[in-house]
Amino acid sequence: MEKAVEAIEKYQKKGYKFFGIRIDAEDKKPGMYFPKSYVWEDGFWTSEKLDGTCCVEMNIDDYVDFSGEIEDALDYAKKTYSGESGNAYIVAGEYEKNGEDYCEVIISNCVVCKDGKGRNYGGLCIYKFD
């Protein structure tokens, strides 16, 4: 978790204030951006795009030691997205607003701070950050 904290601190120094966890099948590296997410209606996505990328919220600005906040957000992502394969990413952005789901935020200009790994074990995906 130490490298995850260091990655967030690096992006804080760059002026980023909004952070989250993104689970995605795309293979992204730090510095790469995610595209905007789509609006979902009744379990299906539409052609309408949101103002940013859907993520699990992290309130790291409220903590001096925010490693626990990273773990909490990652635990929530594991429970919510356990059926999806892909990777976990710590992301940052210039602006965020609340999404429609619990703990969901929409982060604009969503850039990868730290890439994690995901492994699918019989429908349960385990995510972790080195």
Task: Please sum up the structure shown.
The protein has helices at 2-13, 67-80; strands spanning 18-24, 38-41, 44-49, 53-58, 87-93, 95-98, 104-108, 111-115, 117-121, 124-128.
Give the SSE string.
HEEEEHEEEEEE
Strand arrangement within the widest β-sheet reads: 6-7-4-1-5-8
Overall spatial form: globular
Mean pLDDT: 81
Which regions are unreliable across 5 or more consecutive residues at pLDDT < 50?
Answer: 120-126
Give the count of structural domains: 1
Rg result: 14 Å
Beta strand count:
10
Percent strand? 35-45%
Structural class: alpha+beta
Provide the helix percentage: 10-25%
Number of helices: 2
Distance between the termini: 6 Å
Main sheet? 6 strands, antiparallel
Structure description:
The longest helix is centred in the middle third of the chain and has 14 residues, at 67-80. A hairpin with a 2-residue loop joins strand 2 and strand 3 (44-49). The radius of gyration is 14 Å and the shape is globular. The protein has helices at residues 2-13, 67-80; strands at residues 18-24, 38-41, 44-49, 53-58, 87-93, 95-98, 104-108, 111-115, 117-121, 124-128. The protein has one domain (2-128). 35% of the residues are buried. Helices cover 20% and strands 42% of the residues. The chain is built from two helices and ten strands. A six-stranded antiparallel beta sheet has the order 6-7-4-1-5-8. Strands 2-3 form a two-stranded antiparallel sheet. The chain is α+β, with helices and mostly antiparallel strands and 130 residues long.
